[in-house]
User: Fold this.
Amino acid sequence: MSHTSYREALREAMRDALRRDPRVFLMGEDVGRYGGSYAVSKGLQAEFGPERIRDTPLSELAFVGAGIGAALGGLRPIVEVMTVNFSLLALDQIVNTAATWRHMSGGQCSVPLVIRMTTGAGRQLAAQHSHSLEGWYAHIPGIRVLAPATLEDARGMLWPALQDPDPVILFEHGQLYNVEGELAEDVAVDIHSARVRRSGNDVTLIAYGGLLGKALDAAEQLAKEGIDAEVIDLRVLRPLDDATLLASLQKTHRVVMVDEGWKSGSLAAEVVARLTEQAFYEFDAPPVRVCSAEVPIPYARHLEEAALPQVATIAAAVRTVCGT
Amino acid sequence: MIEFKLPSLGADMDEGKLLEWKIHPGDTVKRGDIVAIVDTAKAAVDVESWVDGTVQQLLIDIGDKVPVGTPIALLRAPGEAADSAAPPAKSAERRRISPAARKRAGELGVDLVSLSGSGPEGAITLQDVEAKAAATTAPAADRGAEMRRAIAAAMSRSKREIPHYYLADTIPLRAALAWLERRNAELPVTERLLPAVLLLKAVALATRRYPEINGHWLDGTFRAAPAAHLGVAISLRQGGLIAPALHNVAAKPLAVLMRELADLVQRARAGSLRSSEMADPTLTVTNLGEQGSESVFGVIYPPQVALVGFGKVMERPWVEQGQCVAMPSVTTSLSGDHRASDGHRGALFLAEIRQLLQQPDAL
Assistant:
């Protein structure tokens, strides 16, 4: 075990990949000399040189496209996009190209690309830098979408993502970078399953990414009130691990889904719809979603806090479905 | 507005558990209609209405256990207008029942109509269904024990409160059985009479001359009953016994009594007795039948004041006109409550039964 942070765990994962596989390289805005906008790649250029830690021009469309070309050409690129908001400039490359090549080439070409990007609010960075659009990417067939919420996943998800022959998008929540904790030396995680992070019998709390911590805090608070919540970390936003969710629902018969995205057309909507389709008769209360307010995320601190799911609002939703 | 209260269905009943409503708000009810099925410790009993009216509101839920005398429903008397202030019928809006609760209720056979919900916005939840199912099924498993407790309570009370005296007389039945044989020979099997019917009719007729044997000891005084509703002791297959009333025995022809007795025994064993049959007996008769002993001295079922016991009908050596003959006969006993009657009158009562049984065609 060693004491580390989410940021350091991500960096260690990249350092490990760069050492193990000469085809791996990192590119993105300010990832080299500056060390990354969130300092994730700090020190890597000094260690691996500018060929493998490459600064790019400010054009998401261009450098994501270059990453796709490199992947098609046999390399294993890691492309960092500063935030999910900016990734919209590269949507054409990701959705129309990276996600489709395997299918459109009849299986002749695959795009083994990993795109890392920051997501989420809570740091007073206003609407241009604070949105949670994971659900949009989770809509697209042909890509895998990951949301590491723990140190273990931050350290462990990159390597299996690089082994995936198809594009993988890895969402790092901006509020997690400074989270610290103990981490085992040898980390091996899968990139296909959801995980029960807290076992409970009364209600299933589903969360991912930056809200997993708030869901766990809410569960601890509810435990003192006699409500035993099970907390599930989705981890993999596409394809969804229905089996783990259904097993929990069959135990607790109540579901609260926590999602920093907006409720309309959200990942939360998809999860609830799947559970309702597959296990309608297991529900003992209507499923409830706790999502962000349907506004562009505000800059002002109090408004931003009011717009986001908080421990108190999550706990209140759980009380509602438990009839207390 | 008429408050329909849970009636007492026997001296050993303090409370009852509602098993089923047979009425719903808005129904018209006539005197004698079955209102509900209530579980006493001894049996599931059909509770009858003693009034005419229209159901305004049901006051207790299925599975509720309430003391005797608790109002369980409100009825409007004939002609009484519907109370507009009364809560609307539950069916006015769709009940909130969680899908899981609905599914589980189907599996457990729980009736959702009577449940109240504890979930969000009063929805019926899985827990509500399971709690109800547990409440409904748990006592059933212990049915035998409850029956024993009920019998224990009534019989202990009897021996504590009632100063019993006992008399016995062996009654010759040659004339009665011969008459029965002749009569049965003319009838199809289904209409044939059993000796028990003759015995019951004779007991009922005898009470006309000895009213102090037929009635109840209540509040320190004896109250004679206007008619003989004989409690017929019926042993149940699962153990225990029950003694529901055969009504107005003295006034009914033997053929009617036979039919009613067969029906009563069958329904007692099926657990579908009516409340009037449970509450009404004025004198209990226990008949041991062919498998029984020669005689029985029973314990009086309070607040009744006597119990007549018949042993098995058998041939006995009998001295008749100086000769010993084989005589079919039955030992008839009387357990009497000495507060209500004395041994002298009791003996005359038994003699009256003997007399009546010698003239079977008059029964």
